[in-house]
Amino acid sequence: MVYPHISTSADLLKSTVRLDELFPYLKEQGATSVAIVNTKLYGILPFWEECRRADIHGVIGLSVFIEYEEQHYPIILYAQTNKGYGNLLKISSALSTRDKEAIPEQWLKAYKEGLICVIPNKAEWLLADRSQVFQFVKDLFGVCAFGSLERPGGVKSQYESTFIELCDTIQLPIIATHESRYLREQDAFAYEVASAIGQGLKMNDPQRHEPEHTSAYIPSPKELESWFVDHPEWLLRTTELMASCHVTIPMNQQLLPVFPVDEKVDKATFIAELCKLGLAERKVGFSEIYQQRLDYELSVIAKMGFIDYFLIVADFMKYARDQDILTGPGRGSSASSLVAYSLKITDVDPIEHGLLFERFLNPERVTLPDIDIDFADHRRHEVVDYVAKKYGAIRTAQIITFGTLSAKAVARDTARVFGFEAEELEAISKMIPNRPGTTLRSALKESTAFNDWIIEKEERKSWFKTALKLEGLPRHASTHAAGVILSPTPLVDHVPIEKGHEGIYLTQWPMQELEAIGLLKMDFLGLRNLTILEQIRNLVYWDTKKRIDYRSLPLEDAKTYQLLAKGDTTGIFQLESDGMRRALQQIKPTAFGDIVAVNALFRPGPMEFIPLYARRKHGQESVKYVHPILEPILSETYGVIVYQEQIMHIAAKMAGFSLGQADLLRRAVSKKKREILDEQRAHFVRGAKAKNFTEAEAAEVYDLIVRFADYGFPKSHAVAYSIISYQLSYMKTHYPVYFYTGMLTNSAGNVDKTKQLMQEIKEKNIPLLSPSIQKSRHSFSVEAGEIRIGLNVVKGVPGTTIKALLAARESGPFSSLFNIAERISALHFNRKSFEPLIKAGALDEFGYDRGVLLASLDSAIKHAELVKPTEDPGLFDDMGSSFMKPKYTKATDMPETLKLDYEKEVLGFYLSKHPIEREKENRQKTYQDLKSLKNKRDRESVTVLGMVEDVKRIRTKKGDAMAFVTLMDDTGPASVTLFPVEYAKYTPLLELHAVLEIQGIVENRNQKTAIICKTIET
């Protein structure tokens, strides 16, 4: 039994055949051979792997169109040999990179070798006399050209006899085939829905391309034989054709890119010289220890064949530095390499931080190196472009990823195709949680309301059943956020490619498949925190002309550690969460190692050791070691195993393991498999006894390793990321105005983050200047030690208006509202743009009240329309400001409360003064700040004043009404609970924006603070 045409779900929404269901079915049917035939070469490798596992002969096909005299005709191409497979890679790549729908004649001639060409009995071949095209295919492919007939469900096509005649005339042998796009007959409807989703059309849309029949399932041998009972020779020929296809896809090669140097240059000497120069720059007069480590690392790198790889990474890192693109200090295990440090790939000295090279490249377990690089996210693409230009576009590609139909996506997409109303789509969205890992079945189990909603209508039952069948299918292709592939030869020799973005190709296969054939992936990651650091550095430079070099900041700055010990870490990479702040307040870091430890410990599991680490650090508890040999290894973390590297050191020191073996032990033990644990225990005890330790001592230390194997975090990773945490902390300590300006710029659009930063700025008495038409830049900026709000912060002002204002301002300041109108043209001067600017106070400098400015806006707009209707030179340009002087319209001053409301409306926060702050002054009473509640004792009495932001009314289990109120004052929000008695008494007062004085007691539960309300006054 052979299946010559199975389209899989990898062919986006053109099939619902999943491999995990397909292969058990094929085995059941006794299949000996199967061909994948998709419209691109998506999904080839997983299919190939499944064929190997199931011991079924695999064949690779491609469904394409050929172009003949400007007409397009469908054909199937099968790879008969490795050369043919290579030609399929090239054909699919050429079509996909050049936006061609069909293969031109000359391409077909160039790529025909090793391919079988099959003409299907489709209408395109038979609507008119196509004997010329038949002849063209026959002449081109000779004995490798076939006609194919399909009889889905045993039904003959109306064109069958004409097709047979044509094939006979041209002497084209016929094979029997069957296109399968779903597994079973009952899947026809679900496939049709998937196809409609792919087309973006509803089921009842007359434009929708409908399937020709409902028998595109995978037939049993009996069915297929019965369909072609009159022509068994066609079936036999199909079997022979499939058997004649012999392709091997080479796997696990080392397709490492090559660094271009002169042929005479010995690369091992070349890299050694580069390393020595780089290390001498970074460590003047470095010691013998460094030289030995460098020689050792270089010997391993050379033996593994990775010299070119290191040279390539060093080269593009040099490019980034030369272009002043901020790069990260390192990421992951690559920070363990002295070669990487010497070549300025990383900024972490592995010897100084006790990092082990074997954690990165283990000579006893050869794997491809993985150097991931962080770049300031807004400039990452420049480095990718550089690599593509240097190594050639045909050798460089970004990596494809496939988005699947998640529970929510499949539910909504299917409902849309079914023609559900907007309210129903909305209901579906609400009933299916957004949580990762949510499935339709789990959503149904969780919610009886969802279940009830579905069974209300027959159509909804059908919708749900269909959505279940489609859930998890690949839906669309996108680009991997970081991965870049570099190939030693043109990519199309190994992998199909397609058009990508910004002139860089995209692979048709995702990451795992590329790594399986041996191509090397490099991660170019965009890190927002590096962008923030770069912006802070630029702000300092613009203002003071002082150039900050982050790499040379002193790592022992006492003031920076004081900031961290207070938990003042808003905006600090990795250290922002409430839990992390508490950990820092417990540990009170005094050295860089403490930041590294807290970064490694703050994860589920190891977290429980934070109090122990803190107590031991502060001398409140003595440090104990299971065995004295552990002291030099664990003293830096007060006897707690925090890092994977510590486990490796212990195995090396106590059991005589090489560091390579120790890395294998670390990997093995973390898997927690009984037989591996016993095997490694025996190995460890044997080694320890050989070094004169007792069996009991060895067993005790081994048990310790097993216990901590899960907790161990790569120190290399923690050190590298802690450097970024430290740099941001240092800038926050010593350059707070620039730090907050950079943070605010990066928090644009994030209201909560902006509020949090604004609150801190106020607490630190850093002046915040209102937006100004004369002085504001596009975004936040520093002005004489104060923060000036940028024009882009004002909601509703288009970017084009801001651009026009800044451009006009270059020729001098504005003198009035009308002066702006005549300088930026009526295109940009309109109510939509200028009303928010006036409300934000950006035009206050003209000396008129905001009420007057708003009242004068209409006459200023008319003035713009008359004097400068467009940006082209106008009639009155030369007459300057002497011509027509409009007057400001008289109006009453804007009340203070309205001014505040407007500021909140257009800026998202109160700028002049928070209404609660003013109210506190008026009342002349003492109130606790809402922000201070988390520092209060449990059950402590408090009196607070705040504005109602939100009221959530619920019923208790007994059916009594109660409420949770979000209260806001000038320091932040707090939650207030009104139990039934208080709720009944005060419910009329719970209005949005009402200012309330609440007396109650503090409740601290699950690290959350609330006020239990006792009384309320207005």
Descriptive overview:
The protein contains 40 helices and 21 strands. It is of the alpha/beta class and 1018 residues long. Helix 21 runs parallel beside helix 31 (715-734), helix 21 (528-544) crosses helix 32 (736-746) and helix 24 packs across helix 31 (715-734). The protein starts with a strand and ends with a strand. The model has no long low-confidence stretch (mean pLDDT 92).
Question: Brief description of this entry?
Answer:
With 1018 residues, the chain is of the alpha/beta class. It is 44% helix and 15% strand.
Topology of this structure?
Elements: E1 2-6, H1 19-28, E2 33-38, H2 44-54, E3 57-68, E4 71-79, H3 82-97, H4 105-110, E5 115-120, H5 131-141, E6 145-150, H6 160-170, E7 174-177, H7 188-199, H8 221-227, H9 232-243, H10 267-282, H11 288-304, H12 307-322, H13 338-342, E8 372-376, H14 380-391, E9 396-404, H15 407-418, H16 422-431, H17 440-446, H18 448-455, H19 458-470, E10 474-486, E11 497-498, E12 505-507, H20 511-517, E13 520-527, H21 528-544, H22 558-565, H23 578-587, H24 592-601, H25 610-617, H26 631-634, H27 644-655, H28 659-670, H29 674-690, H30 695-708, H31 715-734, H32 736-746, H33 751-763, E14 768-769, E15 781-783, E16 786-788, H34 799-809, H35 817-824, H36 831-839, H37 850-867, H38 896-907, H39 915-923, E17 941-955, E18 961-969, E19 972-978, H40 980-986, E20 995-1005, E21 1008-1017
Parallel strand pairs: 1-2, 2-3, 5-6, 6-7, 8-13, 9-12, 14-16, 19-21
Antiparallel strand pairs: 3-4, 4-5, 9-10, 10-13, 11-12, 15-16, 17-18, 17-20, 18-19, 20-21
